[in-house]
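Notes to self, ABC transporter-MRP:
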Amino acid sequence: MFFGYVDRAIEVKEGNLEINQRNSNKDDHPILVSPLKARTFADYDVDDGTTYAAPVHFTYADSLISPYIKSPFGHECENHLFTPFDEMKLQTYDEQTAAGKLVVEEERVEGRVSKEVFFSYFAAAGGWPIVLLILFIQCLWQGLSIGSDLYLGYWTGTAKVLTEEQFHQQAEYNITIYSLLAVGSATMVAVRVFFVSLGGMKASKTLFHGLTAALLRAPMRFFDANPLGRVLNRFSGDIGQVDGRIPWSFSYFLSTLFVLIFSLGTTMVVIRTYSVFMLPLIYIYYVIGARYVQPAREIERLSKTTKSPLMTHISESIEGAVLVRAFGSKQVRRFERQHQTNVDKNNEVLFAGDLAGQWFAFRIQVISATMLLVTTLSLVYLRGVLSPGLIGLVFNYALQITANLEGMVSIWSGLEMAMVAPERVAEYTNIEPEAPRVISGSVPAQWPTAGSLTFTNVSFRYKPNDPLVLKELNFHINAGEKIGIVGRTGAGKSSLTMALFRINEVASGTIAIDNSMAIIPQNPILFKGTLRNYLDPFDDYTDEQLWDVLTKVCMHARVSSEELKLESGVEENGENYSVGERQMLCMARALLRQSKIVVMDEATAAIDHETDQNLQRVIREEFASSTVLTVAHRLDTVLDCDRIMVFDQGRCVQCDSPDRLIAAGEGIFFELCEEGGYLDRIMSPKSQEESE
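result:
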C-alpha cells in the first residue's frame, strides 16, 4: 500500500527474505537503525515550527525513507522529516540540555570514610566478640614473639658468664624453651589467620546478602535512574574488595601496629635517648600519611565512579554485539571510540593514584633511612655499655621499626581506601525500599477468589515529584468480565497496569484484588535459562501439564522441533524466539497458574494477524471464566469485550458496552471508531438484527 514511499519491498517468510519488487532508479542503501540509546540528538525544524529529534548518526544511507519522495501527483517533493545531517543543529544530551533527565549522576561521598562504615563492617563480621577475640590472639602472638626474641638474647648473653661446658649443658633446655615460644607464636599466627578469614567471609556474605536484598526490594524508578554498570560495579569491584582486600588489610594493620608498639617500647627501654629522635619522626610519619590519605581516598572513589560507565558500555555492547556488527564498520568504530574514551577516563584516575603513591613512598623511605641512621649511630656510641646480644636485638628491632612504620602508614592509607567499597555497598543497601510485598490484614479470610477487581479513589504517579498520571479512579470489575481499555496516546492506559501490578506504589486510594494475576505485555521479557525453568521455575507442574499448555498456545510443534525439547535454551530476553512466540509463552505461563485476572498490555501491537488470531482464540477458550483486561490501540481486539473503559488524561471518562458507547453518537470511543473505520463493523450486525 505504501510501495511508492520505499526503495524496496521485502517479504519475510519462514525465516527467509524474499524481494518482491525493487525500484531500480534508487540507490541500494542499507537500512540501519541505531542499536543503543542515543546520547546525542539533532534538532531540526519543519515549516510549521515543530521541533523533532533524530539520532546524530542519521544520514541518507541510514534512512528508511529517501530525502526525496514521490508525491501522488508523480513529481518529487522534499521530505522534511529527513533533513541532511550536515544541516542539522546538534544538541548534546547532557544535564544542561536534557529536561526531565532520567539517569541521575552517580553519587560520590567526599571526606573521610565515616566511623559508621567501620562499625557496620565490624558488625557484619560478627561484632565485638570476633574483634576482641582477634585482638586477644594478636596480643598472645606478639607476647610469644617478643618472648622468643628476648629469650634468644638472654641465651646468647649467658655465653660470657658460663663456661663452655655449662653452656652446652643448658643448650637442650634453652632450645626447648625457645622452640616452645616459637611454636606458640606460629600457632597464634595460624589461629589469627583462621579467625580473620572467618570474620572476613561472614562480613562479605552479610554485605552481599544485604546488597542483593536491597536491590530486589528497590523501586523500579531506581533501575530507571541507575545504569546496569553501576550495579555490576558494586557486585564485582566493591564486593571483590570486601571479599579479599579488607580482611587482610585489617589483619596486617593489627599485626604491624602490635609489632611497632613492642619494637618501639623495647628500643626505647634499652636506648633511653632514642625517644628524643623517634617521637618527632613518628609525628612526621603521621603528617605525611594524613596528607597522602586524603587525595588517595578521593582518587579511589573517582576510579570506581569512572569505572561504572565503562562497565555499562561493555554490558550494552555485549548484549547488542550482533546488532553493532550488522550495522557496519562505521558503527563498530563508534563503539570502539566510546570504549576507548571510557577506558582513558578511568586510566587517568588510576595514573593519578600511582603518582600520589610514588610521592608518598619516596618521602616515607627517606624518613625511614634517617631513622635507621640515628639508631645505628646510637648503637655505635653505646657499644661498650650493651652486650652484643642486646645490640643485635635492638638493631633488629630498629630495622623492623623503619619497615613497620612505613608499612603502617601504607596499610592505614590502603585500608581507608579499601573501606570505600563497603561505603559504596552501604549506599545501595540503604536505598529506600518499595512497599511490603504482603500488606498485613489486607485480605480477609472470607474474601472471594473469583477474579473481581475494585479501584477506590486511586491516583498514581511514577516518581514522588511527578504529576499524577492516574487521577481518582473509581470502578469495579466483576469476576469473569472482559474489559477493553482504550484511549489516545498518553491517556493513562499502560499506567493502569503499572498501578495494578504495583510496579510503583499508588499515590492515594486502594486497589482490591482477590486472586493471582498474569500479564501478556507488548514486548515480553524471557530470562536466560531453559524453557522448563521459564514456564515452571519452581517445579510445580508435570511434563504433561507443560506440553498441554504448549499445545493450547500452538507452541507444541515449535518446542518439539528443538533437540532438547523442554530443556532447550532460552537466550537473554528470549532473543531466539519471535515476539509472537514470546507472547504465547507468556500465555502458557498464565494458563499453568490458572490466573483469574489476565492483563494484556497492547499484546497485539507488534504481532502478525495469524498470531493475533491464535492469541484471541486462547483468551476466548481458556480464559472464559477469568477476568481479562485488554489494553489496546487496535480497537478490533476489544470490540468483543463486555465493557469498554475509555481513558483521557488519567481519568476514566467512559465505561459501558461497545454498542452503547457507539449508540451515544459522541465521545472519545465514538471518535476512535470513526477514525479507524470500525463504525461499519459495529453497526452492520446491529442493522441486520433490526431488519430481521
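- Residues 25-100 have pLDDT under 50 and may be disordered.
- The chain has three domains: 3-92, 202-429, 453-656.
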